[in-house]
Amino acid sequence: MSPPADPYAQPHGTATARRIAGLALPALVVLAAEPLYVLVDTAVVGHLGPVELAAIAIGGSVMSMAVWIGTLMAYGTTGRAARRFGAGDRPAAVAEGVQASWLALGAGVLLALLALVGAEPLTRVLAGNPDTAEAAAGWLRIAAFGAPGLLLAAAGNGWMRGVQDTRRPLYIVLGANVLSAALCPVLVYPLGLGLTGSAIANVIAQSVGGGLFLLALIRETRHLRPEPSIIVRQVVLGRDLLIRGAAFQACFLSATAVASRFGVAAVGAHQITLQLWFFAALALDAVAIAAQSLVGAALGAGDADEARDVARRVTVAGGVAATVFALLALAGASVVPGWFTSDPAVHDQAAIIWPWFVGLLPFAGIVYALDGVLIGAGDVAFLRTITVISALFGFLPAIWLAYAFDLGLGGVWAGLGLFTFVRFATLLWRWRSPRWLILGATR
User: For the whole model, what pTM was predicted?
Assistant: First the structure.
């Protein structure tokens, strides 16, 4: 059995700022690696022509479903592994990783088969013309072979975060993405494979990354048999996270649909600001990951006071980090939209929603941190329920009323504000209650 690879990886102890940062900063790099690679891949393919660029946008959108499922798998595994690690049972924490890896392998193979069979009809529905659909289907049929590796990497990230080992995931994910970024232009241009080269580079990188996480798991334990009872519990946890994630997707897709009905400039401004919101969320998710690991470990160790202290510290950290983002956004209000477009009509629309963007960020930082706290505590059913309620009775009615009464982008972002504040209030209430403080190695 290997010792923890991270110097901050004590099963239990005070959650100092240094310890939170020691978990959050490597997690931030891991979170950012995939989107940054997608930008590189897009830039390489973009020089092939508009059809190829549109094709990778369509195919990448389909593959993003696998990324989304992988994220949910990683989050669910982190909390369960962290509880066992906090209880002083590292082998049991690693065992969660074993079962998550079996689940990842099965789900990855299933997704790959579905993509192979459904590539053509899917891309025909999503693409605007036959040439784009054909190119996207060809890319997707190859890229789909990377799904098992992608999900194995997600499971590996999950259990390693649970045992507070944040360095090996950093090296593995960075290495795989650097490999892919180096291979992509070589395969696309000198070797003349074009769009196919991009897909092959993706598959190689994802398979190498998944293989390295699998190798790390094998080095930790020889108990590699599937345990159906544990896998079923992980599926239940993943189901709740999936429903929660689906509520988010419905909200943001609906917001874009409503924004598009206010004109080209409005949807352009909305897209710019929403992507900046997602970028901030990505960074703040690193704090949530630290919360998952530290809260799970404290509850696994049977220390409710430590769990509360961790929750308080990471919530403050999330709020402070989000406030810094908000101040930067405020300072750049007249400059940042110009990075994306020179259209003055889009700038005017962005000015309408920028105060919403800046004002909501600090509250969102606290919400994301408390999400991490409750995921680490295994209180995912509550998160599922409150997110669905906030979407169905807050966000969605608000934005469609904005459309009905022609309230423009201000009405759309008021809906996002309502969604954020409902979650903010209910998560604070849950945090102050003892209901999430279930002690022990299992929940």
Answer: 0.83
